[in-house]
From TrEMBL:
<protein>
    <submittedName>
        <fullName>Digeranylgeranylglycerophospholipid reductase</fullName>
        <ecNumber>1.3.7.11</ecNumber>
    </submittedName>
</protein>
<keyword id="KW-0443">Lipid metabolism</keyword>
<dbReference type="InterPro" id="IPR050407">
    <property type="entry name" value="Geranylgeranyl_reductase"/>
</dbReference>
<keyword id="KW-0274">FAD</keyword>
<dbReference type="Pfam" id="PF01494">
    <property type="entry name" value="FAD_binding_3"/>
</dbReference>
<keyword id="KW-0594">Phospholipid biosynthesis</keyword>
<dbReference type="GO" id="GO:0008654">
    <property type="term" value="P:phospholipid biosynthetic process"/>
</dbReference>
<dbReference type="InterPro" id="IPR036188">
    <property type="entry name" value="FAD/NAD-bd_sf"/>
</dbReference>
<keyword id="KW-1208">Phospholipid metabolism</keyword>
<feature type="domain" description="FAD-binding">
    <location>
        <begin position="5"/>
        <end position="164"/>
    </location>
</feature>
<keyword id="KW-0444">Lipid biosynthesis</keyword>
<dbReference type="Pfam" id="PF22578">
    <property type="entry name" value="GGR_cat"/>
</dbReference>
<dbReference type="InterPro" id="IPR054884">
    <property type="entry name" value="Dggglyphlred_Halo"/>
</dbReference>
<dbReference type="InterPro" id="IPR002938">
    <property type="entry name" value="FAD-bd"/>
</dbReference>
<dbReference type="GO" id="GO:0016491">
    <property type="term" value="F:oxidoreductase activity"/>
</dbReference>
<dbReference type="InterPro" id="IPR054715">
    <property type="entry name" value="GGR_cat"/>
</dbReference>
<feature type="domain" description="Digeranylgeranylglycerophospholipid reductase catalytic">
    <location>
        <begin position="191"/>
        <end position="249"/>
    </location>
</feature>
Amino acid sequence: MSNRYDVIIAGAGPAGAQCARDLADRGYDVVVLETEAEDEFPAQSNKSTGGTFASMMTSFGIPDDVVMHATGSVVLESPNEHFIQDQPGFVLDFEAFKKFLVEDGRHKGAEYRFDARVRDPIVEDGDLVGVRYNRDQEVFGEIVIDATGPAAPLAKDLGIANLDRENHAIGIEYLFEGVDLNHPEFADLTDAMMLRLDHEYAPGGYSWIFHTGDDTAKVGICYIQNERYQENAIHDRTVDGYLEHWLDTDPRFENARQIAESPVRGSAHVQPPGSMSTDSFMAIGDTVPSVDPVWGEGIYKCMKSARAAAMTADRCLTRTKNISAEEMGVYDDLWNEQVAPRQDRRLMMTRLLYLAPNERYDRLMQDLNKLSRDTLSDINDGSKREIVKLLYPSDISYLWKYWRETQFGSVSYSS
């Protein structure tokens, strides 16, 4: 094995592996350092629902054989209402998806080192020159990319990552069979991905059912442990307890049986990123909070951040031969323009959404059903005009609470 590369990538998740694919395809010498053992990969990092859309599949050349099930719609549920949006999607076999990215990257020329736990950056005379992993092994490169997710050992050491605990989202998911996907009391979830807004099951978050074929589905919940969670949560009920409560009280799960032996657990941070790069360095994927703040979709965002980083590395190593912080900052610009445009507006939407009580969610679904089918897409893109259409005078209290939080920090919402 060589000890010097053009680019070193820490982490073989979707972001790291996609970045390696792109760079290797451009002819660069790339090495990926992955903590897991190769014969177990990705057992310890299989942390996604795998829900995505055609734009991701076509943009990154993802084959159909990593798809568990193709869906035709997205369903939004509140406690007593629902809204159906026709939108083709795909529920991925996340393990197969990650393995494909690794193998395709290898085919293009990327090198992978498994059982390689990244420890810290190697800095010489103030310059980042490589990465130290395991006990005392070292590898050197022109550019270093941290794609390790919230752990972010390199980004934290270099003062890039600033992930706040109050913005930490946690989730849990199981694969079930025997799920009643067309129960008469609910929307038809046959060939659908469903997201439910209901503080009873996911205080300060949402729950989901993603059809994976026949009578099987991925079922899970996610919430942010912030003031909204504290206001609506039941004391001592864990994330596992909330999922069990949903399974016990929703008739769609009356005959459901767990397939997987253990749950998929994951976490992400829902917050605006700060700086994402510095001299010779970039942070991508969930190392930078790339998850969609409104609906939690992370795969496409991670993949796009990987491509933006690959484009930046290509520019810095080929066109300018300059890996200064100023030149690496092109990645920050690409991220804000192409990966997550209007991110601040979408974060505001998220906070306002989770401030609302269950009754407001019911009214939201009723309004969405009355408006144009394009309304949700426009809202999702951060259209102020469409957002205003859904506001009522009674929403002023939520806007006031949001303003107080942003101006003065965390406050109590018990009133």
